[in-house]
Design goal:
By secondary structure, the chain is α/β, with parallel strands linked by helices. It folds into three domains: about 220 residues, Rossmann fold (3-Layer(aba) Sandwich), CATH 3.40.50; about 180 residues, 3-Layer(aba) Sandwich (Rossmann fold), CATH 3.40.50.12780; about 130 residues, ANL, C-terminal domain (GMP Synthetase, Chain A, domain 3), CATH 3.30.300.30. The longest helix is centred in the first third of the chain and has 17 residues. InterPro entries: AMP-binding_CS, AMP-dep_synth/lig_dom, ANL_N_sf. It holds the Pfam family AMP-binding. This is AMP-binding protein.
Length: about 550
């Protein structure tokens, strides 16, 4: 049974009034300096900025862009936009100028807040002429029409506007694994439904601590950090940069942590880089000492205080979840998408079922279509795609269920198992269908493989393109290359034994590039762009298959 829905601004004002001087946000300023903001600091700055926005006399519901990496003023700007009666449009902080322009023009954004960015000069030409820019306190070098101090010179608004459930709150542009980003419209009621029920399920406490490091423009971080802190009252620590992330993590010592699978894998690979997998596995098996080793490893990562760890946004290898379990940390899988506020399914503590994601979140209804597609419905379901009624009609059924694009099955208790993406499933030249994700998950558990993409559309047999981990690259560069190849052959043999004949991989190709956001192989949420991988290496596929080697190097 879903809970009574309370709107985001409503819960913010209540917290601000109840404990105005409690610490809310901790922002690194560089050089070891920190800024701490209380609930009343955040409220006052948002109210002053809201007054400035109101003075622009824009039509109600105007779109206001936020272009910034995570920082305290990302959330303050969002609150100000809502208080002023407008709609926030967050942009990924690493977009090209063309991609930024596409979103700003499509959303008809009237103003753009600009904050922490790595390469503003490359992005700035994407801001259309006539769209004023406002520099947040942490901003890059450049010319801006207004500074945050201009907004703070205004008096704070005196009213406490909450908006209403039907009022549009934000347009979240998807990260575009499949092409042009789509603008997902969420109203305050959607956010209120996810926030109110999420609070009930997570049992958050006001002394909990969060670390914000994944893009706030992505629905998962928006829900877990922004909405999570508004509804649960947790303190939010912001990460300064990738270079300082481990120190940021240790300073925050979060009690609740959300990460995409790539992040949890990165932590694991970092541990293996310091201690060989075989030695760690041996130590973990020892009675008593194993528990101490697990705790020490978690403390070294800054994860020793975590009481709830979540993983989602992409398929999660079971072996990765088991690895953390052996360390003493239960990482719970969550499932959702931008179109339903990331609010769909959640593994409950103590109710893990191996190979299954979990049960529907409060107030979520699920059905499986005749084609095996997972359809979901709840108060968190989007209002549609901005300016795209055709795509909206394709994605939402007549009775409001959302097409997830995922194939899956549900057991009698409501646990969900995903068996692949409908669009990712490919057909070999022998006419057999293959779902790549489950095969990739079997390979991804190997400590020497960091990234993997199974391809095979139109080929006689699938193969896997693999990027080695740091430990794998070290072995490949030294005298252990032969041992590495032998262990990869054993892995391939083991994986193939568990697959149907038409799914079996002919070869593992070790590619030299690391796939990253910067070189276009990953989305901003660290998912592999299959089309880019296939385009980059496609010319070699047939040649690689013709060689019929189980392990080969793409030098």
């Amino acid at each position: 049974m879903a809970n009574a829905v309370r709107l985001p601004l409503e819960v913010f004002y209540e917290r601000e009034a109840r404990h105005p001087h409690t610490r809310y946000m901790v922002q690194p300023l560089g050089g070891g300096r920190l800024e701490e903001l209380s609930w009343s600091d955040v409220g006052e700055q948002a109210r002053r900025a809201a007054n400035w926005l109101r003075a622009r006399e824009l039509p109600a519901g105007s779109r206001i862009a936020i272009i910034s990496k995570n920082c305290a003023h990302w959330i303050i700007a969002d609150l100000a936009i809502w208080m002023a009666g407008h709609v926030s449009v967050p942009l990924y902080p690493n977009l090209s100028a063309d991609s930024a322009r596409q979103v700003l023009e499509h959303s008809e954004s009237a103003i753009a807040f600009v904050g922490k960015l790595d390469d503003w000069p490359a992005m700035a030409p994407g801001v259309p002429a006539g769209v004023p820019t406002v520099a947040l306190p942490l901003h890059p070098q450049g010319q801006f029409d207004f500074q945050w101090s201009d907004l703070q010179a205004c008096t704070p608004i005196r009213d406490n506007p909450t908006g209403n459930a039907e009022q549009l709150a934000t347009i979240i542009y998807t990260s575009g694994t499949t092409g042009t980003p789509k603008g997902v419209m969420h109203n305050f009621g959607n956010f209120g439904f996810a926030g109110s029920n999420g609070l009930e399920m997570f049992q958050t406490q006001e002394n909990d601590r969060l670390i914000s490091y994944l893009p706030l423009c992505h629905v998962a971080e928006r829900m877990f950090v922004e909405l999570g802190s508004l509804y649960g009252g947790q303190a939010v620590f912001f990460a300064e940069s990738l270079d300082t992330f481990l120190e940021d993590l240790k300073r925050a010592r979060p009690t609740m942590m959300f990460g995409v699978p790539r992040i949890w894998t990165k932590f694991q690979m970092g541990v293996y880089a310091k201690m060989p997998a075989a030695r760690l596995d041996f130590l973990l098996k020892l009675p008593l000492l194993g528990r101490l080793v697990g705790r020490k490893v978690l403390a070294g990562l800054g994860l020793d205080a975590v009481r709830m760890a979540l993983c989602g946004a992409a398929p999660v290898p079971e072996a990765l979840l088991r690895w953390y379990q052996r360390m003493g940390l239960d990482v719970l899988e969550v499932y959702g998408m931008t179109e339903n506020c990331g609010y769909s399914h959640l593994c409950r503590p103590g109710k893990n079922k191996t190979g299954w994601i979990g049960q529907p979140s409060l107030g979520v209804e699920v059905r499986i279509s005749e084609e095996g597609e997972v359809l979901v419905h709840s108060g968190a379901t989007m209002q549609g795609y901005y300016k795209d009624p055709e795509k909206t009609a394709e994605t939402l059924t007549a009775d409001g269920y959302l097409h997830t694009g995922d194939k899956g099955e549900q057991d009698a208790e409501g646990y969900l198992r995903l068996t692949g993406r409908i669009k990712e499933i490919f057909k070999t030249s022998k006419g057999k269908y293959v779902a790549p994700a489950p095969i990739e998950n079997r390979l991804a558990v190997y400590p020497h493989i960091e990234q993997v993409c199974v391809v095979g559309d139109g080929l006689p047999q699938p193969m896997a393109l693999c990027v080695l981990s740091q430990a794998g690259r070290q072995e490949a560069a030294g005298s252990s290359r032969g041992e590495l190849e032998n262990s990869l052959r054993s892995l391939l043999d083991e994986v193939n034994k568990a697959l149907d004949k038409h799914e079996r991989l002919l070869t593992l190709v070790l590619v030299k590039e690391t796939w990253a956001v910067e070189n276009g192989f990953l989305t901003p949420t660290l998912k592999i762009k299959r089309a880019v991988v296939e385009s980059a290496y496609g010319a070699h596929f047939q040649h690689w298959l013709d060689r019929r080697e189980t392990v080969l190097w793409h030098e």
